[in-house]
Amino acid sequence: MLTIIIQIVLRLLKKIKSSKGFLAGVALTATVFLFIRARTNDQYFEISKNLDVYTNIMKELNTYYVDPIEPGKLVKVGVDAMLEDLDPYTNYITESDIEEYEFMTTGKYGGIGANMHRKGDDIYVGDVYENSPAQKAGLHPGDMVESIDGQAVKGKSIDDLGMLMKGSPGTQITMKIKDAFTHAVSQKIVTRSEIEISSVPYASLEGSQNNIAYVRLTQFTQGCARQVRDAFDSLQKAQPALKGMVLDLRNNPGGLVEEAVGICNIFVDKGQLVVSTKGKIADLDKEYKTPGTVWNKTMPLTVLVNHSSASASEIVAGTVQDLDRGVIIGERSYGKGLVQVVHQLGFNARLKLTIARYYTPSGRCIQMIDYAHRNADGSVGFIPDSLKKAYKTKAGRTVLSGGGIAVDVNVKDDPTSMIGVTLYTKNYLFDYATEYAGKHKTIAPADKFTLTDAEFNDFAKWLENKDYAYKTETEDGLDSLRKMAVREKYYDDAEREFDALKNKLSHDKKQDLLKNKEQVKEMLENEIASRYYYTRGRIAQSMQHDKELDKALSILSQPAEYEGILKPGK
Asked: What's the predicted TM-score (pTM) here?
């Protein structure tokens, strides 16, 4: 509005020629600028007024509140509540949170290289990273942790444990451990080191002729573009006759925009626009173009995404799609088209805030949720279809803004069954994998490892005395209907029918286990494989039953199908 008024004034001044007209123009201009200044002053007054109110509240609380207060904690709660009204990506990062934030951007931290999980109040070693201090000290999944540096850990939160285990490289911690296999209690001295979680945990040659390069990228941390390029280099050295590439971005939440641009540069020429950002301050708007030499701009490419592929993952997938450089396979992506930067606040605190939206080469923004326009109850909704605009890829294919990246080839994963979820959350898969590892010194390579029917039956027998009761969605729905009938006074007349329906719908755990045998078996095989081959073992084992990857390999093996998908109208 102010910009429009200023433009009108400038046009009037150009047309005014008389001295009286000129003076009138000057007066009009002065009025406009006073209006602008008043508007600006009003805004700053509101900020100043409310900051004074906030400060006075803190003073009153500190002086008169009946119990001692923790100012830092109160400020954190207040700021978090304020930012919650904006979007989930604008966050206040306190000094104590810095290490976790830096780990998210660098993939590095000082620690022992193992995570913990709770069963009740007891603490157990979870995953142990390959070649980590934890592995070298002899820790393995399933060990019970009794104390760390003399502090009992029973009942502690996972965050509290993280604080105890993280620290400067070279420092030591002493852990009292009950061995998962021998049940012997011993002291383990673990020397912390810099732990770097690779953003490229797995790369391999796939396909019937081992001529498809597969690379998994889990996050966009510093240097990940170089890691991906190096992985493709290594695979090409092992197989010079590569026929295609698969870049797996499933469950990748994103990260650094510059690294997304670097990933795109592996597949597209130098100087290609990858993403542009536009926000409130025009001077901060940017265009990101590929800076270096392309690795291969013609080899057929597929990119795997799912609902958990977000942000930088969507920049890569959107660029590949807009330039018709490859085929996007899987499920519609998350839909995060917002850009964040981090500002220093003093006292080693920081504010990560959303400053812009990003746009793919075709000009579309894929943001799915409209945080700017909340519903009356404070909730947020999706971008309505009526506001989605059509854009064209380089070859003329139609793509839409809003709603994430719509894939070129949709492949849906089977949902995890309730029994599978229950066995996982109650740690029965984890516990049985620990027992299995104690009885088997070695197993087949992860990409070949499977359980026999007899071994699965052993697991089923092991479960017989375990409590893994759960409710199906249908049973939950019936309970809700029963409560509604009681509230509306219909239940007494329909009690017999409710009981009959409940008996009919009640499930048999043993039958559910048999009905979902293949899925539960795959989940158990994956957990067991991790005991011997770590994270890379999980990935390699899961690829035996990977429908999205199978589809990608099938498309890459049929050039006509691949090219047909990338043609307009297909």
From this structure: 0.85
